[in-house]
Amino acid sequence: MNRRTLLTRIAAAFSVVAAGGLSVPFLKSLMPGFQREILLDVDVSTLAPGEYRRVRWLGRHVFIVRRPPEAVASLTEQDASREDPGSVHSNQPVFARNRTRSRDADHLLVYANCTHLGCEVEVVSDTVFRGFSCPCHRSEFDAAGRVEQGAAAKLNLEVPDYQYISSDVIRLIDA
Known about the structure:
Elements: H1 3-30, H2 33-36, E1 39-43, E2 52-57, E3 60-66, H3 69-73, E4 107-111, E5 122-125, E6 129-133, E7 140-141, E8 161-164, E9 169-173
Antiparallel strand pairs: 1-9, 2-3, 3-4, 5-6, 6-7, 8-9
């Protein structure tokens, strides 16, 4: 085998490997099974006011809380006792830039990770849902997931992207 033949075969092998690598994204887009991995439909019809559900999605837990009317009424737009009351610096979709940080005031969806060091927060509820608390450094979050001023965490809890499929089903979306 001469040098020219060897180099031609090496170039052909690299071309085949490159073509295979470039075709993977196109093949994934043709397979609907890959799309289902990034969507999660959650039925919230059984949640009573003040109850919550924790679901696992994309490797993280998400809290879905049905807030009671008292918790919604307690939320004010510019609360001075919050670190980021208007959620200007927090990670959230555009629709969540309101006093309830949600599409609908009845439901709150937040990732369960504290924005300080990523510990999983706990739901604070005696008789009425009041918010979340981080067990690691005691950061407190209100019923909209906004952090209390002076806490170790400086950002509000993250809000995932979601939409209502029906009045009882919420679809989490990886945006």
